[in-house]
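Structure (tokenized):
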């Protein structure tokens, strides 16, 4: 069945239907990774977005039981070139097409994704629809879409829950948590409590954490007023490690301006460099935010920059045990270069515990 991807600027990309056959409207996002479609589709950082895969062939490995980053998916649609629609992964339970039908997510295949990528790279991210026709009504529907600033409230946990272990007590503020992040904390024996994004500092204090981790997630950081207020209240008490959207929240809590790229970077091959040692990591990134090295960072000190653009993608606080990165250290998908950041977090907590013991 012939269907169409209609962009906000009126550009139309024809294709063939797969997945659910409903109409959908969302913000079009280009994902450039050659692998990892299951992890991307179930990553809450893509909430409310139509996810277009630049790599031309998708679906060969199916959907397996191990690579979910969330229980379901919060995306609005999937756009691909060629759909292999196989189940070659040895744990595969269903094909990509079957998964999209189950999740009621419409898909569009046989799209010229190379042309689509070049268009978005030139004109920036924009709203789009997947529909049966491309008449005036379709364009009106795109114009009528109001993108919510606070999308975290759709995906953050509603109630606190534990992920028990025998090590450091870590509170994870859930802005759109990935399962792999919890797995990495579990490997390091962290005793985790996951809390909603709007949890006040008084509740966090009762949990007596050794450290706070603020996850990645969707939407605009300035909409997370309660999270920003919580960070302001707790950052003098606990070590903090922030990722992605959490990176932007901590920056705003410290009165540092957060910049937004018109063309979002969603990839698994980003080169970032540590400013002092010049060490380079290849990492996965799903974020549009960055800090500018040409503007004052106040009490924050830039630690990692993107090699190609010199955007500040990592910082630490000059006086407090706080550091943040604007890429995914847990990968999933992508290279594992960033896993050492979890070990750095443990060292930060241990140093803070030792300091408190000396003070008493």
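Design, position by position:
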């Amino acid at each position: 069945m012939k269907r169409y991807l209609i962009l906000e600027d009126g550009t139309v990309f024809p294709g063939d239907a797969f997945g659910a056959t409903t109409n959908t409207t969302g913000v079009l996002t280009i994902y450039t990774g050659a692998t990892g479609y299951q992890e991307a589709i179930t990553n809450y950082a893509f909430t409310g977005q139509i996810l277009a895969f630049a790599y031309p062939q998708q679906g060969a490995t199916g959907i397996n039981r191990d690579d979910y980053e969330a229980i379901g998916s919060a995306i609005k649609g999937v756009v691909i070139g060629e759909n292999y629609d196989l189940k070659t992964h040895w744990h595969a339970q269903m094909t990509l097409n079957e998964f999209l039908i189950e999740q009621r997510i419409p898909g569009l295949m046989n799209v010229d994704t190379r042309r689509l990528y070049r268009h978005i790279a030139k004109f920036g991210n924009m709203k789009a629809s997947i529909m049966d026709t491309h008449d005036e009504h379709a364009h009106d529907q795109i114009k009528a879409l109001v993108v919510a600033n606070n999308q975290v409230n759709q995906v953050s946990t509603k109630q606190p829950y534990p992920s028990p272990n025998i090590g450091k007590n870590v509170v994870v503020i859930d802005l759109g948590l990935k399962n792999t992040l919890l797995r990495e904390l579990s490997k390091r024996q962290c005793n985790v409590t996951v809390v909603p994004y709007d949890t006040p500092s008084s509740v966090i204090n009762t949990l007596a954490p050794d450290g706070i981790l603020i996850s990645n997630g969707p939407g605009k950081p300035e909409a997370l007023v309660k999270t920003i207020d919580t960070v302001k209240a707790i950052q003098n008490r606990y070590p903090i490690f922030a990722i992605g959207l959490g990176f932007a929240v901590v920056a705003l809590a410290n009165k540092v301006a957060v910049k937004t790229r018109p063309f979002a970077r969603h990839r698994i091959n980003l080169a970032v460099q540590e400013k002092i040692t010049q060490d380079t990591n290849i990492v996965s990134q799903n974020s549009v935010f960055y800090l500018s090295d040409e503007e004052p960072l106040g009490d924050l000190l830039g630690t990692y920059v993107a090699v190609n653009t010199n955007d500040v993608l990592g910082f630490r606080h000059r006086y407090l045990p706080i550091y943040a990165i604007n890429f995914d250290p847990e990968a999933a998908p992508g290279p594992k270069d960033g896993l050492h950041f979890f070990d750095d977090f443990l060292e930060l907590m241990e140093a803070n515990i030792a300091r408190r013991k000396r003070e008493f």
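Reviewer-requested clarification: The radius of gyration is 21 Å. The chain has a mean pLDDT of 94.
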